[in-house]
Recover the amino acids of this structure.
């Protein structure tokens, strides 16, 4: 399976600041990838280099098999982080113009635009000026502009920012639909759940360096859970019965449930049975380590040195990359 | 190339198809038209009626009587009657030439004439003290009536001294706010004429005969054309060059201004990055410039059409030589691409319109300097100043556009050279603009100053 995007040893510096540091990345064709990282990590810089809007100081990027995204502009859809519209243009005209700039044939374009607007429940804004749209409506229109030309590769920078839960759900469905049609998607987000729900691959960068590069399945597999979640039938029950169990490291209440952490060597399924027997419960389940935990673990809440980063990255990702 | 066309088309339509533009392009010519027709009505020069006394201390002893007669109401009525007729005649002639309706012309003529003043002459004794006589002028103003002026003739004003070679003069003292025209056209002219007449009489001649001898009318010349001839219109040589540079100015500024604001809008609305994922910075810049060139062309053609129509109705169409219009278009293109490139560069470097102000300054100089020198250039189109300025790259199209209708015989090599220089300056400006545009479009934050822009141009 060839790569939709190949990044090899790319470095980008702005004056003193190293924005991207020897980055190696491969986005498999047809996959949906999440591009994670804290603010200022270099995500937008990397995306701009993929799009050939800015150019790396060192290293190579190939997009859709070509040396530069410039050669396949019409086959790429892009939604930048800072996105605007032509405020005085009518929505229908705006989308048609964007589509034409991407090589969509003028014939049948108005119908296409209308169909898309109906799809996102914005059928009535066709003749309205863009400045009359609310933020959420504008986001949906901008999303349409990035895919209306049926691109092979779709790059979305923070597509979910500012969307309410209903619209976020709609966007998730649209992304899933695009993926089902065989397109490659890569999007950046701060909301881990979006990544977990949609992606089959995750990249994480921090301070310009890649710290995670794994498929979702291997993330789930790698992180053998050592914690059992239990929701006792008796809401007022506290840690008591569980602390006494063999191999228990600690018990913590998290919202409506308790989390019982076991020592590393424990047979976790055995532990689950013991928790189940300890008291009547609504639910007993293995805790999956979430992407959020990994993220915070890698990025940390305080000062972490480069060396510690490297160690953490190594530990999590094995010897760099996975099957 | 097709992308460039798509960008240009959007730029053109989004600029032109707005209420603001359409109204502007229609209204301004209408205002100018209305102004020409209606302006005469607006000149309401009528001063208030003047009435009062003019005192005279006539040291010559020969002038007072005639002076008094000249200021009598009968004489004044006759004199004003003449003037009124002459004014009406000239207004009618101008109105005919301009096509103004006769009723408007009559009203204009009426508005321009003044009311008959009501003056009495008080002859003071020849030995009267001037200072004492002046006292009554010190209080109040001419609007209060009473003594308005004091006129004093020197003793030898008529007879002269040194065997009639040297003549005395006169003095006039007036109260404040006396209408200039009463002082000049009534009092002064009566006094001077009377003194002259008395001198002529004293020399033994007949004043009326001398007047006839001296009267040679100022006949207006006829300009002979290829077919027929027409009355020479004074100031025509200013008309066309000035009109040409104004056309160039308006067209270039319109397009340039829009280019600046639409580029800044695309940056501040953050749509720039989306555009750049579909077109290259160069395609964007060239497309926008071409689109705005369409806008400027439209404006140019509208005004050119109106101007031609006006010339036809004033029967001055011969002033317009069509090869000059051709050259106008060539210089327009040069000037436009020059200014447009610079405006695009500035627009790409800033994120808000007000940030552009300081960078626009030098560009405005290019437009203002030729305007400042325009009278000199028009008056002396082949002179040193005009020729020298024609070869200074940014100024050259504007200067040439002034010279060409003003002069008949600009050497061909100068025209060719100025076009070549103009094209070269466009190439340089566009190249520098491209460099700035590429970098500027994605730059936000503190706006760069001129030094930074130069740095960008010099970067690889």
């Amino acid at each position: 399976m060839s790569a939709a995007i190949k990044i090899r040893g790319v470095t980008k510096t702005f004056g003193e600041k190293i924005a991207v540091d020897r980055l190696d990345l491969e986005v498999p064709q047809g996959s949906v990838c999440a591009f994670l990282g804290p603010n200022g990590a270099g995500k937008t810089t990397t995306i701009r280099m993929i799009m050939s809007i800015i150019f790396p100081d060192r290293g190579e990027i190939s997009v859709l098999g070509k040396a530069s995204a410039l050669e396949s502009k019409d086959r790429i859809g892009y939604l930048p982080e800072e996105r605007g519209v032509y405020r005085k243009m009518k929505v229908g005209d705006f989308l048609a113009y964007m589509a034409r700039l991407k090589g969509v044939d003028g014939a049948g374009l108005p119908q296409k635009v209308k169909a898309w607007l109906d799809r996102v429940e914005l059928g009535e804004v066709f003749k309205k000026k863009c400045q009359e749209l609310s933020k959420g409506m504008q986001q949906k229109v901008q999303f349409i502009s990035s895919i209306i030309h049926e691109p092979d590769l779709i790059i979305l920078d923070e597509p979910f920012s500012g969307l309410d839960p209903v619209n976020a759900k709609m966007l998730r469905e649209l992304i899933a639909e695009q993926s089902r049609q065989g397109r490659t998607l890569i999007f950046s987000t701060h909301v881990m759940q979006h990544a977990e729900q949609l992606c089959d691959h995750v990249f994480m960068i921090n301070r310009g360096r890649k710290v995670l590069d794994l498929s979702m399945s291997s993330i789930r597999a790698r992180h053998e859970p050592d914690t059992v979640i239990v929701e006792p039938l008796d809401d007022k029950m506290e840690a008591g019965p569980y602390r006494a169990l063999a191999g228990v490291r600690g018990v913590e209440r998290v919202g409506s449930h308790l989390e019982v952490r076991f020592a590393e060597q424990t047979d976790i399924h055995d532990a689950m049975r013991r928790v189940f027997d300890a008291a009547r419960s609504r639910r007993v389940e293995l805790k999956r380590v979430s992407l959020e935990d990994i993220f915070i673990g890698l990025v940390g809440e305080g000062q972490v040195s480069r060396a510690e980063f490297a160690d953490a990255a190594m530990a999590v990702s094995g010897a760099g990359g996975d099957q | 190339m097709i992308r460039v066309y798509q960008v240009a088309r959007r730029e053109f339509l989004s600029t032109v198809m707005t209420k603001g533009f359409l109204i502007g392009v229609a209204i301004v010519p209408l205002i100018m038209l209305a102004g020409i027709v209606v302006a005469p009505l607006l000149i309401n020069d009528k001063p208030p009626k003047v009435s009062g006394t003019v005192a005279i201390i006539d040291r010559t002893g020969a002038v007072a009587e005639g002076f008094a007669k000249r200021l009598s109401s009968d004489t004044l009525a006759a004199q004003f009657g003449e003037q009124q007729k002459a004014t009406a005649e000239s207004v009618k002639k101008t109105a005919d030439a301009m096509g103004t309706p006769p009723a408007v012309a009559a009203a204009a003529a009426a508005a321009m004439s003044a009311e008959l003043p009501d003056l009495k002459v008080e002859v003071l004794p020849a030995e009267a003290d001037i200072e004492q006589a002046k006292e009554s002028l010190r209080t109040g103003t001419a609007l209060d009536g009473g003594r308005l002026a004091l006129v004093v003739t020197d003793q030898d004003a008529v007879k002269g001294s040194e065997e009639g070679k040297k003549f005395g003069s006169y003095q006039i003292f007036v109260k404040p706010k006396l209408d200039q025209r009463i002082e000049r056209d009534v009092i002064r002219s009566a006094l001077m004429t009377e003194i002259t007449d008395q001198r002529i009489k004293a020399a033994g001649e007949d004043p009326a005969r001398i007047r006839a001898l001296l009267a040679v009318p100022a006949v207006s010349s006829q300009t002979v054309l290829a077919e027929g001839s027409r009355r020479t219109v004074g100031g025509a040589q200013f008309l066309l060059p000035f009109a040409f540079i104004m056309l160039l100015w308006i067209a270039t500024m319109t397009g340039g201004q829009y280019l600046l604001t639409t580029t800044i809008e695309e940056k501040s609305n953050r749509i720039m990055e989306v555009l750049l994922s579909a077109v290259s910075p160069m395609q964007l810049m060239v497309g926008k410039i071409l689109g705005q060139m369409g806008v400027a062309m439209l404006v140019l053609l509208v005004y050119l059409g109106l101007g031609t129509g006006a010339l036809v109705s004033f029967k001055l169409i011969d002033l317009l030589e069509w090869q000059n219009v051709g050259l106008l278009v060539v210089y327009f293109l040069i000037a436009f691409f020059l200014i447009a490139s610079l405006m695009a560069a500035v627009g790409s470097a800033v994120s808000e319109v007000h940030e552009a102000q300081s960078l626009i300054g030098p560009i405005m100089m290019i437009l203002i300097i030729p305007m400042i020198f325009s009278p000199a250039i028009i008056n002396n189109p082949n002179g040193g100043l005009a020729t020298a300025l024609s070869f200074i790259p940014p100024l050259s199209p504007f200067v040439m556009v002034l010279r060409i209708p003003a002069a008949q015989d600009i050497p061909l090599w100068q025209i060719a050279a100025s076009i070549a220089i103009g094209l070269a300056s466009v190439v340089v400006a566009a190249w520098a603009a491209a460099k700035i545009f590429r970098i500027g479009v994605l730059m936000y934050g503190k706006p760069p100053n001129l030094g930074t822009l130069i740095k960008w141009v010099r970067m690889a």
